[in-house]
Design a protein that fits this description.
192 residues
Length: 192
């Protein structure tokens, strides 16, 4: 959904009569995807068992995310429900700026939290963290490439698809090998 939203193809498929969601929903998809990435990271690296203090930090971050997400949703719905007759929004423009800034801060804090978890677990010599670090490096590379292209620092190469999709593909392939490795370790522990 995030990639469909970024390419502008999601509203024709899912909400063709609500064109005002076109600018809003890619941020929602991105935040939800990051939320579930953090969930996957904590479960994949077994933080609850191996690092309970770090697990508590992640739970605090998730609660802050949930509250901020709820507040942002309420502001958005209230802004769209409370239109005046001359199509002026009842909320000033700075609320949109505040919401977009909050989304950017959330995404940045989520990426920092995820990288901190992975690097910390790698320093503790967790083999799953090594796999995860290699897998996520492809996504980080393509994300950095997109950001540098958007800022005009480097010229964009012509690729038939979004490079982030390629990064996700490599991440999924490497994480699949990591999950196979982890499943084999679990089977070995059960048999002994």
């Amino acid at each position: 959904l995030y990639f469909l939203g970024e390419e502008g193809m999601d509203f024709q498929l899912f909400y063709p009569s609500l064109q005002d969601l076109v600018s809003y929903l890619p941020s929602v998809y991105g935040c939800l995807a990051l939320f579930f990435v953090i969930q996957f990271t904590t479960n994949f690296l077994e933080l609850k068992i191996l690092q309970p203090k770090l697990f508590k930090l992640v739970r605090i971050w998730e609660r802050i995310f949930f509250i901020a997400f709820l507040i942002g949703g309420i502001i958005y719905v209230a802004n769209n429900l409370l239109h005046t007759n001359n199509n002026n929004n009842t909320f000033p423009h700075y609320t949109v700026y505040i919401l977009s800034t909050c989304v950017k801060l959330f995404v940045l804090s989520g990426w920092i939290l995820q990288m901190f978890i992975v690097l910390y677990m790698a320093m503790k010599k967790n083999i799953n963290a090594y796999f995860y670090l290699v897998a996520i490096s492809s996504l980080l590379f393509t994300t950095t490439y997109n950001i540098l292209c958007a800022l005009g620092i480097i010229h964009k190469m012509y690729l038939p698809i979004n490079p982030m999709i390629i990064g996700f593909l490599f991440e999924i392939i490497i994480l699949s090998f990591a999950l196979i490795y982890r499943a084999n370790l679990t089977e070995q522990k059960k048999s002994t």
